[in-house]
Amino acid sequence: MERPQLTHPLRPFTAAWLAGGITALQSLEMQYRAEIQRHTAILRDCWTPGNIGFHRRERAKAYGKLRALRKRRMQ
Questions:
Q1: pLDDT digit string (tens) for 46-72?
Q2: Which of 34, 54, 37 lies closest to 45 in space, CA to CA?
Q3: Per the domain annotation, does 7 fall within a domain?
C-alpha cells in the first residue's frame, strides 16, 4: 500500500512551527528585557544618594545578574 506523497515534506508544519518559534523568542526576549530593567532599577536605587537601604551585597547581586543575563542573551 503506497502512502500519498506530500509535495513538500515540511510544508504543513513550517508556518505553525515558525510562528511558534517566533512567539517563543519574543516572549523570551521580553522576559530578558524585564529582568534587565528590574536589575538596572535596583542598581539605580543603590546609587541614589539618600537611599541607604541597598548595600554592597545587593549591588553585587544586581551586577552579577545583569552580567549573566547579557552573557546568556549573546549565546
A1: 666 666 655 677 778 888 888 888 787
A2: 54
A3: no
> Measuring CA to CA, which residue among 56, 52, 74 is closest to residue 64?
56
59 occurs within a structural domain: yes
For residue 21, name the pLDDT band (cuts at 50, 70, 90): confident
Average pLDDT, integer, range 27-49: 78
Structural domain that includes position 61: 31-75
**What is the count of structural domains for the chain?**
1
Sequence-separated (6 or more) residues with CB below 8 Å from residue 70: 36
User: Is 40 among the domain residues?
Assistant: yes
Closest listed residue to residue 58, CA positions, set 47, 71, 70: 47
User: To which H or E segment does residue 35 belong?
Assistant: helix 11-46
